[in-house]
Write a structure and sequence with these properties.
N-(1-d-carboxylethyl)-l-norvaline Dehydrogenase, domain 2; about 55% helix; about 10% strand; about 300 residues; 9 strands; alpha/beta; Rossmann fold
């Protein structure tokens, strides 16, 4: 298959390394970001600078987007200077977490301009984006998947979850709710152990060899909680946004999500107490504050 000329909009903590992987693989990539410094870093890697999302879509066959909120994505996709107005691009391939409702809205808006929507939310964090070990949840028609699969394969393991807009987003929201819940529940268990007098590193080692092991105990606690850095790399505001969307979607589908609603409230408190730019591992700091202990090793 002929190699597609690519565009990439949103060169932040995830988009930056992902665009870098495309450049390293030999793709021509035209880029745009609101941060000139982010564009400069991409250009230094071989990217081509564009002045707007529309300009990216005038230079590329497939435009990828990695953006922080659904509303920003909607403006970039469908706004007056957005991807929909670009003369060349036929596919917008979004790797953000937008939620099913917004995915359907943008897909319909792009279709009015003769363009296709493909969603590809990802999981695996900055480390996965850098190393190409992400999980990629693609939802788009089969014919579109044949075009985008070789592109997103640069980022990790690809799963085609369906053809309808929003299905990839459902999987991603479910995953992110579980990831947040694991942090909070692990923090409660660890705080109990520390307050009883158990060495937190020993307790964590035991949990990780036992049935209670999870993504937080195996990765987030050793990297960001035990050292007291709370810097795993995912903002509280973004986790809060994802869990809100997950609970809302679950309610829309008629599926009770009692536990998810609790995690939404815990993230609301964490967001208020430590700020939207804090790391979502600060949920553990919240439990520490409530318990009067520090989980350090």
């Amino acid at each position: 298959m002929e190699q597609q000329t690519l565009g990439f909009i949103g060169l932040g903590r995830m988009g930056g390394p992902m665009s870098g992987r495309l450049l390293a693989a030999g793709h021509d990539v035209t880029v745009y970001d609101v941060s000139e410094a982010a564009i400069d870093r991409a250009v230094a890697q071989g990217a081509i600078r564009a002045a707007s999302p529309k300009a990216v879509a005038a230079a590329a066959d497939v435009v990828l987007t990695s953006l922080p909120t659904p509303q920003i994505l909607k403006e970039i996709a469908l706004g007056a200077d957005g991807v929909a107005q670009g003369s060349r691009a036929k596919i917008l391939l979004d790797v953000s977490t937008t939620g099913p409702s917004m995915a359907k809205t943008i897909a319909a808006g792009l279709a009015e301009h003769g363009k296709q929507w493909a969603e590809c939310p990802v999981s695996g964090g900055i480390k996965g984006a850098t190393e190409g070990t992400l999980a990629l949840m693609v939802s788009c028609p089969n014919a579109t998947f044949e075009i985008v699969q070789p592109i997103v394969a640069n980022f990790g393991k690809v799963f085609h979850v369906g053809e309808e807009p929003g299905l990839g987003e459902v999987v991603k929201l479910a995953n992110n709710m579980l990831a947040a819940a694991a942090i909070f529940l692990t923090a409660e268990a660890m705080a109990m152990g520390v307050k009883a007098g158990i060495d937190p590193r020993v307790m964590l080692d035991i949990i990780n060899l036992s049935t209670g092991r999870n993504s937080a105990s195996q990765d987030k606690f050793p990297r960001a909680v035990l050292p007291g850095t709370f810097d795993f790399g995912f903002a509280t505001a973004l986790s809060y946004k994802d869990v809100r969307m997950c609970v809302d979607e679950s309610e829309t589908l008629g599926v009770p999500m009692v536990g998810g609603a609790l995690i939404r409230q815990i993230l609301a408190i964490t967001n208020s107490k430590y700020g939207p730019d804090s790391d979502f591992t600060c949920m553990a700091k919240l439990v520490e504050d409530w318990s009067g202990v520090e989980i350090r090793g």
